[in-house]
Amino acid sequence: MHIVRTVQAMRHEHEQWTGSVGFVPTMGYLHEGHLSLVQRARAENKHVVVSIFVNPTQFGQHEDLSSYPRNIEHDLQLLTALGVDVVFLPGVAEMYPSGFTTYVTPEGALVDQGEGALRPGHFRGVATVVLKLFLIVQPNKVYFGQKDAQQVAVINRMIADLNLPLTLQVLPTIREADGLAMSSRNSYLTGAERACASVLYRALKAAQAAFENQHQTHAQTIIQAARDVVNSEPGARLDYIEIRDYNTFLPLETLSPPALLLIAVRIGKTRLIDNFVLHADGTWDTGKPGNQAF
Ligand SMILES: Nc1ncnc2c1ncn2[C@@H]1O[C@H](COP(=O)(O)OP(=O)(O)OP(=O)(O)O)[C@@H](O)[C@H]1O
Ligand SMILES: CC(C)(CO)[C@@H](O)C(=O)[O-]
Ligand code: BAL
Question: Rounded to an integer, what distance in angstroms lies between the CA atom of residue 17 and that of residue 227?
């Protein structure tokens, strides 16, 4: 496995290759969610690149850029074991050299709501770094997790809008034994907070049950079922629970597929997000268990 730190060296790797290139962008501190993306990329491509870069431009001024968890040595061990060809590990100055001026700014309903509303500028930072990474790595297929549903929608749109010559694969959310979506930020949780953190999954389950078992379609009634679960956890503070159209991201008054149930909750100082997908054919994507079944 080659560890590459410059754009020029990454381009040089690419020049040696024939056959498809699969690419998994990450911010490191890898867990089974990331590894599921890498495994799929490995199965589907001749060459696999994983990037590890904690991108400063997607963090707000008062967010957790400086405390974001990092463990490069462990990440590299995991990626070696999975047969990754290249880890792209740039420094901040390599990605944003002095004088950097040009950003990709998604606009409209896709970014005005949800994470975009609560984290102003976040998707500008994500779109900018992701486009740069795509241009540096030149992949044929890119792999993202459904856990970050709005990110997936923004990148899907950017690929279409800018005619990027690559295919996006979105893979299910990998979950802990109690349903908590795996996330690097779970490492911030204290023992008591971790016990409470399954509340996101439990709330989504309650919303799904209101739709499936009680045949509720009124979005606010379904949302209330989820809200009740969050309100019953004294340690959890709700940022939002929303029901949105899967493609446009516009809020739905009546739940009908294809749709997303989206949730964001604060537990202590940690902010966690999660979602379920209701596909056009009426099936749900509620994620998958990691090594421990739940
Ligand atoms: N539980 C998960 N299942 C599947 N994919 C995931 C999961 N968690 C993250 N990913 C995906 O891995 C890629 C890299 O994400 P990132 O490095 O930000 O990890 P993260 O665990 O989501 O971190 P954070 O705590 O910042 O949300 C993204 O495409 C993301 O959607
Ligand atoms: C896509 C990404 C690597 C861009 O920094 C990040 O937002 C993430 O890890 O989901
Ligand atoms: N996984 C999304 C990256 C972020 O929260 O900044």
Answer: 51
